[in-house]
Give the backbone structure.
Amino acid sequence: MKVLLFDLSEAKTIRKIRQKTESWSPIAKDQIIAQELLRPILSHGGYAPDGAKRAVIWANSGKLSGTFELIDVTTNKQPPALPSVVYTGKLEEAGSHIWGGNNYVADFSDFKQEGLFWMRLELEETDQVAESYVFRIGKSLYLNLAKKAAKWFSYQRCGCEVPGWYKACHTEDVIIRENGERVDATGGWHDAGDYGKWIGAGTTGVLALTTLEEAFADEAGDRSQIPAFIDEAAWEARYFCKVYWDGIFHQAFAPPLENVCLFLGPPDKEPPRVLTEAQCLEYNTPTIATTVLTGASLAKLGRLILPYDKALADRCISISKEIQAIAAKVDPSKPAYQKEAGSYLTLQTGLLLSDVALYRMGKEQKYRENAEKSVREILGLQDKEGFFYEDKARSSAQMRYHFYLVSLYEFLKQHPDSPLNPDIKDAFGRWASTMEPLAKLSNFGQVGTKTADGSMRNMTPSANRDLGCFAWGMATAAMLFEEPKYLEIAERQIQWIVGFNPANVSMMAGVGRFVECTHHRYCFIEGHEDGVVPGGVLNGMAGGTGKVFQIGDVRTGHFVVSDGLPVDYPVFDTDGWGWSYAHSTTEYWTINNAWFIMGAVQVEKAMRKIGNR
C-alpha cells in the first residue's frame, strides 16, 4: 500500500495521472514513457533560419533506419501528386534514454529556407504513418514568441473590461488602513489562474516588459504614442503605487488565501473584496530584499514612461529612491535585519538594478559607486563552481530563476569601461560551464538539475520559469564569449516550452498543439471553456520521484495525484478538458511569462549578434 504525503481526509476529488507506456511497438527495458503513435517530436513554435533545428524520434525497443523529409505545406498537394519535398536527411542514432527507449535525431540545422513545413519519416522497419506537427521557420522567431507572451498580460488585467472576455472586474478592491482610511486597491494583473494580485510576481512582469521594449526599441516605429509593452507595464505599476506606503508594498488580495482560491466564476462576478492592512501583512510581509526589487522595476518603468506620463514616472522614481535608501541601510549581521540574512543576494540584486536605472536617468556618480559595491557583493556570493548563494554565510545555493545575473549584465552594458567587467565575465563563464553538462541529459537539451547527493535529474524543480531563466543566461554567455554552443542550449530551453518535450505539446497557449486542460478561472467564462488564454505560459512538467505526490489544489481539497511515477518521469496533466486542479503543472503564472520573455528576447539578440552557424 502506498503512503501518501498529504492528508486525504478532507479530499473532495482525486484524479490520478498514470504512466504512459502504451505504444506503437514494445517498449525498452528501462523506458519510463512512450508515445502512443510514432511521431517526430519537434518545436511547435518553429525555428530561426540560422538556429538549431532538430526533431527527436522514439523507437522504443526497436531499431530504425531511413530518412526524414521536410515538406513545404504551402505548396503540398494530396496524392496521387507528389509532396513538395524541400529537404531530405538521414536519421542519426542518439543513444538509449528512459524517455522513448532508443532515440534518433533528425537534424536539419543547415536548412535555412523560411516557410511552413512538416516532417515525414521514410522508415525501412515499419509502414507506420510518422508525420510531425506543422512548424514555421522564420526570422525574428524568438522576438515574435516574446511578443505573444507579452500580449498575455493584457488578458490578465484587473479592474477594467477585457473585451471579448469579461466586464470590468474587482472595481471595489479596497484596503482599510489602521487609521481607518480606505485605500483604492483596484487595477494590476490577475497574477495567475486565480484572481490574486501578487507584488513579487508582478515585479518580474514589469521587468520583463520593460526589457522587451528596450531591447528592440529601434524597431518599434512611431514613438509619439506610448509603446504597448510600456503601457502594459504601467498598468501594473499604478497598482504598485496605490498599495505602497511606509516602505511596504501591501499584497492586497493575495492574503487570506481563501480570497483567491475558492471563487471559480468569471472575475466580474466575484463579490467585492475588502481587506484590512493587518490582513495584507498577516500572510506575507514583503522582505526589504523583495521590496527593493519591486522598487527597481518602478525605476526602470519610470524612465521609460516619462515622455508619456510624467506624473506616474515621478511617482515611480520617488518610490524607488525611497526604498533604495531604506534597503541601503540593511546589515544582515545585525539582529534587526536577521530575517533578511537569507535573501542577501536578492537584496543586492535589487539595489544594483535600481542603481543602474537611476544612473541612466541623471548620470549621478553616487549611483555608479553604489552599483559597483553591489557588483562586488554579488560576485562574492559565487563559488568556484559557478553557483551563487542567497546568504553571506553560503548556506543556501541558488540555481533557480532569479535576476542576479541580469543585474550584473545590465551593469556591464552600462559601464563598459569598468574594471569589474572581467570579473563579471568570469562569473558568467563559471555559471555557463556549470550549466552546460546539465543540458546534455537528454536529446531535447533541457537543463536538468543536481540532487543533494550529486546525481543528475532530467527535470528542473521549477520547470518553465527556470528554463526561461536558463535561456537568458546561456544566450548572454553566448554573446559575451561568442560561443555558439551556449546559444544552442539557450534555444533548446525555449523550444522545450513550445513543443520540443516528451509530451510533444506546447506549453504556450496559442502556439502549436496546446494541452486540453488548464488551471485558470477563465475556463468558467462563456466562450473560453477551453482555458486557452493566448500567449500564456504554463508552469510545466514536474519530475517524478518514484513516490506518490500530488500536483493539485491542496487548499480546496481537490487532488491530482502523480501515482508513484518513476524518477524523472515528466509529470504533466494532459488528461482532462477545460478546467484542471493540477495547478503545479498547468496553471498560467506571471513569472512564467516574464522569464519566457526574458529568455526569448536574449536568444533573439544572441541570434542576431553571433550570426550564421
